[in-house]
Amino acid sequence: MPHRPFMLGIAGDSGVGKTTISSGIARLLGQERTTNICVDDYHKFDRKQRAELGITPLNPECNYMDIMEQHVRLLAMGEAILKPVYNHSTGTFDPPVYVPAPRAITDGERLIPRAVVLEGLLTLSRPAMRERYHLKVYIEPEEELRREWKIKRDVAKRGYTPEQVVADIERRMPDSKAYIWPQKEFADIIVRFYRPPGYDPERPSTLSVRITLKRSLPRLDLTEVLHSAYEDEPTVLRLEARKEGDVLDISGGLNPERAAVFERLIWEQLGSHAEHFNPEVIGTFWDKGGQSYPLALTQLIIAYYLVHMREHAIRQGALSYA
Description:
two-stranded antiparallel ribbon; alpha/beta; 36% helix
């Protein structure tokens, strides 16, 4: 196949929703067109060993960073890998899995480079990995919101008590500040979910989101289109040019009709590239089984930039094999 894969890196602290974002993007693009990798599988020590050593999985010394870098490089070159598997439910390791070479997909007479989506705690931590990604995303919800999400997830899925999760968050905080939060600097897109005034925790679909599109991104048509379309609705969707980039605020009060208009604007920008997209599979979150329009539109915007940057890379020959 003449195309290397398009590499998307998603980083953020524990419990921020990295898997929710990445899995939604994969479902939107099509599972057969994406390869999803969790870099948290590259832990050196299991849960019991980490407790004995007094080290957290956020610390690079607790991870096989050299193997992680090697696998990112191999995937970027379109090669297969044998990936380790860390079982978050048991805190131990499962047998490694074979990840096939992420080759292009035939779509009629056209070849579409596969998207490789890598997500985890340390996805953007090393220059050798960052230089392999075509698009980099950092997720940072409000800290109290992150704690709420992490407690719910770890109690429901990983066998912890709420008190154990809170203690673990506090124990990890120095490493969060030292190793995880600094990755924000290297992201092209920063996603921040936040609670609007009067937010009801029983209705997580009403969370708002702020998406920062940094200057490192190519200047595309999306921002101007949204600005002209929504300048009469500043409380629902706001677009502001700042020093760090364009900042898009999507209100949790966005109604289905407005969300549909927003989606249509993006579909129009994507044109034929979105023919296989399925918008009904995005915006879902596990704990309430509901759907969030700000979450769905966040996933769609990231996919929008992925597709456009992939097409640009193809035209520039950046995804061609030597």
